Amino acid sequence: MPKSIPIDPETVFARGRIHFSDIEINAYQRTIEEELATYSQDDFLNIWLDMCAIREFESVLHEIKTRGSYKGISYSHLGPAHLSIGQEAAAVGMAFSLTPDDHIYGSHRSHGEILAKGFSAIRQMSEAQLLGIMRSYREGAILKPLESAHQGSVRELAVKFLIYGAYSEMFARETGLNRGLGGSMHAFFTSFGIYPNNAIVGGSGSIAPGAALFKRINRKPGIVVANIGDASFACGPVWEGITFASMEQYRRLWDQALGGGLPILFNCMNNHYGMGGQPSGETMGCQFIARIGAGVNPEQMHAERVNGYDPFPVIDAFRRKKQILLEGRGPVLLDTVTYRMSGHSPSDASSYRSKEELEKWQQADSILAFRRKLVEGRVASEEALEEARARTQSAVFEMFKLAIDYEASPRVPLDSELIGAVMFSNQKVERFDDRPPEFLQPLAANPRVQQIRGKVRTPLQDGKPAPKMKVFNIRDAIFEALLHRFSIDPTMVAFGEENRDWGGAFAVYRGLTEALPYHRLFNAPISEAAIVGAAVGYALEGGRVVAELMYADFMGRAGDELFNQLAKWQAMSAGQLKMPVVLRISVGAKYGAQHSQDFTALVHHIPGLKVVYPVTPYDAKGMMNSALAGTDPVVFFESQKLYDFGEMFVQSGVPEGYYEIDLSEPSIKRTGNDLTIITFGPTLYQAVEAADQLAARFGISTELIDLRSANPINYQPLVDSVRKTGKVLLASDAVERGSVIETVAARLTQFCFDDLDAPPVLVGSRNWITPAAELEAMFFPQAHWLIDAIHERIMPLEGHQPATNQTLGELARRSRLGV
Ligand SMILES: Cc1ncc(C[n+]2csc(CCOP(=O)(O)OP(=O)(O)O)c2C)c(N)n1
Ligand SMILES: [Mg+2]
Fold this sequence. Notes:
Layout: H1 9-12, E1 24-25, H2 32-35, H3 41-66, E2 69-70, E3 73-74, H4 88-96, E4 103-107, H5 111-124, H6 127-136, H7 144-147, H8 154-170, E5 194-198, H9 203-217, E6 224-229, H10 236-245, H11 249-252, E7 264-270, H12 292-296, E8 304-307, H13 311-326, E9 332-337, H14 355-363, H15 366-376, H16 382-404, H17 418-422, H18 447-453, H19 474-486, E10 493-496, H20 512-515, E11 521-523, H21 528-540, E12 545-551, H22 559-566, H23 569-572, E13 581-587, H24 600-604, E14 610-612, H25 617-629, E15 634-639, E16 667-670, E17 675-680, H26 684-698, E18 702-706, E19 709-711, H27 716-725, E20 728-735, H28 740-752, E21 761-765, H29 783-793, H30 808-817
Parallel strand pairs: 1-8, 4-5, 4-6, 6-7, 7-9, 8-9, 10-11, 10-12, 12-13, 13-15, 14-15, 17-18, 17-20, 20-21
Antiparallel strand pairs: 2-3, 14-19, 16-18
Helix pairs in contact: 3-4, 3-5, 3-15, 3-16, 4-5, 4-13, 5-8, 6-8, 8-16, 9-10, 9-21, 10-21, 19-25, 21-22, 26-29
The structure holds thiamine diphosphate and magnesium ion.
């Protein structure tokens, strides 16, 4: 408990100094003669050939991008080619002593890292394992075009598989590692420990810590490497990921048996440039990326700067650093210095560097330098090395030719629905591991469980509403669903700001601190990008997560993680990966412009996310149960206005047992014949008030439907209702422009055009900042706004005097002003 870390003014104000230790630069100084004892003859040759294979792989890409052909073979490659020519030693050094259990995450310039890691894994796996992987991977889709012509060992076949799969992926072929749906910057192959690579630079900085977290919590072997460019060390999510990865609690508060600090190595692939900006000397002030470690923790992240233009110092550093990580003393920061001889992309004119500089690095070319070393050390003759290199080059070229062959390597048919089919995995998984889930106490002994047991779960008790403290509310409903899944799935963890002792900012988690060990429920730093990123990494590795962003207003802080990571990896993996993440986000009120915004529309717009917003205890429990049984990312909105609300609609109350609600199904809260009101979010309760008034004052019978979900939506119940009533009003607390209900209205207009007496009418919040609590009634939809809008734009209500201006003229005026 943090209560066990007391803060004492006497110690806090005692005089002292913060000590730093020196950070090594190029500490490795061994000669090739000394290395003869470290490496076998095979090792030397493998390092050499891996570097040559990567160089050739990228040289082919360079030629076809810049000249349209290679060795007389023409091909037009439309997509990107971010080459790492010059960085081969850094990639091969990184991968050399990693095992298949060690997982790498990287970025847009990762061809070399992918190949190096794959080659290394292939060497360590048995032939039976390799055959198993190749045969089972999408039923042999990548293997089949290779198998018949192959003469040689299984290991050689696996190398071809990797190179061919990587090329095919770049050229958007079905035979790609990710069926052509990831592409050059996102390719990966988890069976060899190659995890997603990110076109959002620094993207792996927030994701990889989640992968390392998964390894710790689920006692999985191996470490995680986040390969990040030097310029990307300026990215907020990278700093947040480092913060998340270096939290003291792993070693101070968590069960020591878990192994201590996160086993993660942040590896800076330091090629001295962003696209054209120079971090050291221009765009950053640290001079050495390794220096960043000094500010992070007392161990200075064991930071070190190594020569990545030579594979030996990198291998040496990775071996030492891996040991540190396995001992639970992570995280580690490595500043691996290299140089990108190729342009950032084929259109790069290298205007940011001089010819002389480039020539110096070309002369120092790591491949040539390494060959010299091997010759000096009498490992092999230059002729023998070049002969082996030529064989490798032609093997790479063969794979290129096969990958561009449309017959062997077809594209997914453009009229296919493949992408739609892999956007969501839509599966049910009870538990992601079979071990018993860890708890600190029997659930029956939990104070919150006991308190809930005495609560009233029905709308009325003895004919009247129960006192507030006795009502089973939305908070309880979510708690119950979470506890259920926590008790079934041992991999399930929850984290976010103030999640533990505080009980979650809005007390949903109260009681969980007593129930769960630290590693299943913990406080994250105020690092929204890292919270969502780590959830993504944890899920990619095969665990279930509930992450929390306190307020919807903070979503911007996790923008990339929400929009590009959580939403995308299932489809970019062509359905290989699952994303069992529930992201809880509460929508505020009473706290003004930056704490009271309903941002459901932002995520609703992003393909790949399920977006729900239940507003009753029955729905909250059933939908959370479904979200927590599924395998897709669900952004789960909750209204702060409603946490105390009990069930008002389901007369039999909220079941104590387990039940699920289909996330696509709108809920008919009240049936009616004259008018349909569709709501999304807490506006349901204003709609109830409006419906009551419409009935009492005008004898109008209203059908009330709560969307509950913005994506997916089954439109049938909405269409049925609108066909019956011919009139529809949609309302929600989000600002009206671009809102979820606007999309629903547009679709209903198309589905029901002939049945409508008037166009669907929208009532949202004003297109303003959310004002102070005292002024909220001028901003959020009120019941009388709904009635005024019905009167003005759907059917005149006899004798009604509107209090607000809901006319089309007013709508046009506001639109012109942009408010
Ligand atoms: C978030 C984000 N910002 C900007 C870009 C555009 N971009 C692509 S590569 C690159 C330079 C990255 O430099 P560095 O991290 O050093 O990696 P390197 O390209 O040198 O391997 C930039 C700015 C991007 N892809 N993602
Ligand atoms: Mg760089």
